[in-house]
Structures are given as structure tokens and as C-alpha cells.
Design a protein that fits this description.
The protein has 310 residues and is α+β, with helices and mostly antiparallel strands. It contains 3 helices and 16 strands.
Amino acid sequence: MTKLRILALAALVALALALPLSALAQQTPPHRFFGAVTIDSAAAPVGATVAATVGGTAVGTATTTVAGNYVIDVVGATPIAVGATVNFTVNGRAAAATGTYAFGGLTDLTLVVGALANAITLTPNNSAVTHLRGVGFPANAVVTLTDTVGTGAAIALGTVTANAAGVIDTVVAAGSSVAGAHTIRAAAGAVSSTATLTVPAGVDGAAGKAGAAGAAGVQGPQGVTGVRGSQGDPGPAGAAGASGATGAGGATGSQGAAGAAGVAGKQGAAGAAGAAGEDASAGLVVVALIIAIVALVGTGAGFMKGRKKS
């Protein structure tokens, strides 16, 4: 069993060593370049061969299937250093533009071979705003754009920078709203080209820059008083106040009514006998008279007592 495992391992090692290095290299994501391609100012025909090299080593080749356009994948038999310069040829003739390699990159790059006539085109050419494309300018040059109407002074439209293939591509607006023919010029040093842009009547030109802010206006009158807000919730009860001083004493009340008469007392005891008087008939008469008076008074008092009880 051990011998079989050793033989199988040896077979795998031999198979790995037998694989071509190029097959291993294909596992690396390529850098794809694509874009327009021209030969002597004309679109490269279908079937043109586009080749790429890095440091003189071939790293890719492709054939155009659409006139004026190419697609090529750059991948080396050995790893390509990131940032390496990629050179291109079209049908064996060197292109002016070069690329920079990136692992798995995707780059739109125009390839130009041979002389390219300087020219600009406007699409559309009968509007106040148009798409401008120009070729044949110095690589990476700053191209100045102007607009001239008749014999008037040129109006600056701004600048645009050409790419490595000398191509410019931008959108421009007429410098004024004057209807008629406008001469659009693109110039970079001694290299320049013009095209005619026809601005239709009634079409406004590009909007001008915003004016400076005006001075602050005078303060307006005070607004009317707002409606009164609703009453707020009652506040919490305040703390109890201190006790007041003791009030003055009231005035003395009036005298009450007289009480009812008391009950008559019991008859007192008979008085002591008087001293013996002289034996005279006159004295007896006086005594008898007094006794009669006392009896009469007692009888009257009993009568009055009886009436009060009834």
C-alpha cells in the first residue's frame, strides 16, 4: 500500500512538471485594452492585426472584427510587472499611444498609426450646443476653443486637453445667441482646425455667469401682533401664610331679661305670746281685731297661691 501511494505521488509531480508554463500563465487575469484604431487617417479595416509588447516581449495579439475598433487582452507567459509600459503595433506599424499594465485592468485607448489629418467635427452642426471631436492635435496638448461670428471678435469657449493619441472630445455651446454661421476653432500652437456651427434663429446662447448679489433691502415694517396664546396650566399652590394677629375682644352684650318670680315660702311659726296686758276690755278688742286681720291675710295668700298653680 505504501509503494502505491509513493508511485501515485510521483506521477502527480511528473504531470505538474509537464504542464507548459504558458498554460499556468493563462490563469492570471489579463489587462484588456480596447478602443478606436486608425491607419493613415482612416479607420483600420476588418482583419487588421493589433499586437502588444512589454519590453520587447509579446504579451498579446488580436484581429479587428469591426472596422476602426479593436479589443486585445494583454497577458504574459510570465507575470507582468504592474505599471509596466505596453506598446502596440497595427499591421506591424508602431502606434503612437502606449498603455500601462494593471492586474485585471480595463482601458479605453485610441491607437493611431501614421499621419492623421488635423480636423474637428461638430455633431449636430445646426444647434447652439454641439458635440465637438477633433483629431491630429499634439499628444496631451491643451487645445483652445473659440467662436467667431462674421467679422466680430473671437469669443473664448474654454480649453480641452488632447489625449495621448491627439484626440479631443467635448461638448461646447455657441458663444452668443446670434443666429447664423459661427466659426468654431480648435487650436494648439501652430496646429488648428475650424468647423461651421449654424445657430438657428430664436435659440438662446449659453447662460451667462450669475451676477453679484444685490445690496440688502431696507427692513420691512413690524408684523401684526400674533393672537394671544391659550392660558397655561395653573401653577402649584403657594406655601401657607403665617398666622394673623389675635383680633380685639367683642363689645359687652346687653343685660338679659329678668328671671321668673320664685315660689312663695312656707308660713313662718307663730310668734311668742305677748306679755299679759291689763285686764281691760279695750285690750281684748284690739287683740281680736289683730287676729282677724292676720287670718284674713293668710286666707288671701292661700287664694293667690292657688291661682298661680292653676
